[in-house]
Every structure is written in C-alpha cells, then in structure tokens.
Write a structure and sequence with these properties.
Radius of gyration: 16 Å
Helix content: 25-40%
Distance between the termini: 17 Å
Number of strands: 5
Largest sheet: 5 strands, mixed
Strand order of the largest sheet: 3-2-4-1-5
Structural class: alpha/beta
Number of helices: 7
Shape: globular
Length: 202
C-alpha cells in the first residue's frame, strides 16, 4: 500500500538523507535486521565525513535549517548520520527514531555478501509482493515508509522534515512520492551514501 496515493498535495516539505558509508558497506555485507543493525555497523570515518559534507552543502543553499525536524531509522548507521545532521543544522528539535524507516529486511541474505541484493531486486521487478528467500517485500517497505509521511501530514503543517534512512527504503519511498508501484523502485535515480535529496509528490 502507498499511503501517498491519498494525497494530491502535501502540507510539509520532505528531504531524504541516505546514511553515510557504514562499516557494513566497507565490509561488503548485507546488514538488514535490528539484531545486527541497531547495536553494530555504524558509520566509517569516511561515512561521517560524507554526511558532514552533504549537510554543509544544503546549509549553504538554505534548504535546511535549525527548524528542520529529523526523523531517523533506529539502525546505528542512520542514527549516527542523523546526529551529525542535527549538530550541523543546530536543530531545535530532538531526533525522532522510527522503526518504520529501518532498512529493508533481506531475509536469508543477512550478513552475506552484498552482491545478493541484485537477486532480490530482480524479483522485485517481476512481483513487488514477493518474499523469496524470506526477504521483506518491496510493497511492505512502501507501506511502512509512506505511513511515516502520512502520519506527519496529519500532525504538522508547513514543517520541513529530514528522513534519515537506507538505500532500499529511500529508493522505494522515492517511487511512492512519484506514485509508482514498488516494482519500479530500481528505476529511481540511485541515492549515493550520505546524499540528501528533496522528495516531491507527483
């Protein structure tokens, strides 16, 4: 389900921040469960530098400021990225951790080589509801990620939100903002580590 299909316009402004390079990225591993992702596999030194550079760039353009509200996945690599963003933005608001922004669960491929992502993505293009190899379906990720935005739309008006999350979660959320099915998530322009991108509803 895509909750954004219920909206013609949004009352708030949304930016996506993919976490910076993590130790999982460095090691080439899939880390997608809370058991591994919350306590371990935080940012590398390069990842911290990436987030600092990205946030500094948007500050220079006045896209984000101290009024920005930060909502983050509770995985260590995302939470650490959110903390850097909060400090640089001097945000007046506490970081809100939301499990609905967690990495997609890649099931049987947990802690395996990250080349296995492609197997799941290939199946997504055929059927976005698939749970082959016990992976979380792309449809399920779209439902939980868009639920975050739908909830914020009910609570706030005229605010700016920075959603700090993960590659697949944000790829699928981008598709949702364009009102595309989750099966088209890999057709979205890829978010690099620590990249910040505005999310426009179509």
């Amino acid at each position: 389900m895509n909750y954004l299909l219920n909206f013609a316009l949004l009352k708030n402004h949304y930016f996506a921040l993919r976490h910076g390079e993590s130790m999982a990225n460095v090691e080439g591993l899939i880390v997608s469960t809370p058991e591994n992702g919350i306590p371990k596999y935080g940012l590398s030194n390069e990842g911290r530098a990436q987030v600092t550079q990205s946030v500094t760039r948007v500050l220079d353009k006045n896209d984000l400021d101290a009024n920005t509200r930060i909502i983050s996945s509770d995985f260590k690599r995302a939470h650490e990225s959110a903390k850097i963003a909060k400090e640089l933005l001097a945000s007046a608001h506490s970081i809100e951790l939301d499990a609905k922004l967690r990495e997609r669960d890649f099931g049987d491929f947990e802690l395996m080589d990250n080349t296995h992502y492609q197997t799941v993505w290939d199946n997504d293009a055929i059927d976005s509801s698939h749970t082959i190899d016990n992976a979380e379906s792309a449809d399920a990720v779209m439902q939980r990620a868009t639920a975050v935005v739908a909830s914020l739309e009910k609570q706030f008006n005229g605010e700016t939100f920075l959603l700090v999350a993960h590659g697949d979660t944000l790829q699928i959320l981008q598709a949702a903002f364009k009102k595309y099915p989750a099966s088209k998530q890999r057709e979205m322009v890829h978010l690099e580590t620590a990249e910040i991108r505005v999310l426009h509803l179509l």
